[in-house]
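Q: What does the predicted 3D structure of Nucleoside-diphosphate-sugar epimerase look like?
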Amino acid sequence: METTATRKTALILGITGGFGSAVANSLAARGWQVRALHRNPEAGLAMLPAYDIEWRLGDAMNQVDVCAAAQGVDLIVHGLNPPKYQRWRELAIPMLANSIVAAKASGARLVFPGNVYLYGDDAGDVVNENSPRNPITEKGKIRLEMEQMIAEGARHGARAIIVRAGDFFGPGGQTSSWFGSAMIKPGKPVRSVIYPGQPEIAHGWAFLPDVAETVARLAELEADLPDIEIYHFGGHWLASASAMMAAIQRVVGRKVPLRTLPWPLMKLLTPFSGLMRELMEMRYLWQKPLRLDNSKLLRVLGEEPHTPLDEAMRITLIGLGCTPSH
């Protein structure tokens, strides 16, 4: 454990989300002081009572608040995401802009969780950090714009690390993942699983604690990294939906039916539901395999943090309140 004088500090933006809370846990386990900016610190404390967090009152949409919270920190983790896949341009762009300004002002390294939305049909089945980025959806275009903002910021003193990953699953992912928001019902026993894709097509999954541990390890190496670095996290590459279903059934101890997401019905609802429109836009990612090549990450870390699938699923379902903890 580092002494108080040498202990590094990380500002987590979005600490009550799945990614933010997981990174906070991994950094705290490595001796970092965790600071959080939150519009309601009392509510945040109630959600994360076991964490030793330095809470700061403020709004991530307010640049003054973000810069004030970032004073004296070594790392800024941008774990913010508009809820329910909506209002991305209205919220995501200005919040990231504030984090970039804060990173430059404080000298801290910015960490940003990337995803696969910025890859279009021309990317191929396996993509590395230099594969073509030609998004075909509005959210993909926004994610590309966000990464371009980060790259431009790095050229002007806001050093950054981007870790791209597949679909999240894990504790705390109720609203920020397909798994927790569409495939199962948090807080209830697993009676069935609604699968968004074609069951026979391979899909990439990222267990949140493994992604967080990756971020923590990179954070400890960040002083030796270039001003901007992008890494792909491989995670669990499952050849079909049956692999995930088998893990779920082993955890709950019984058979669970697999149902497919009713895309035709969702399409009919798009004129009346903004959420349905946003989800429909991402359907293409469930219709073809898209695997992230993590060779670069392996060269830097030597290995990728990887929790076995059954254990990761057990932690996920317990964390989402879908199975007893004993």
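A (community wiki): The structure tokens above were generated from the sequence. The mean pLDDT is 92. Residues 9-168+208-236+288-307 form a domain with the Rossmann fold fold (CATH 3.40.50.720).
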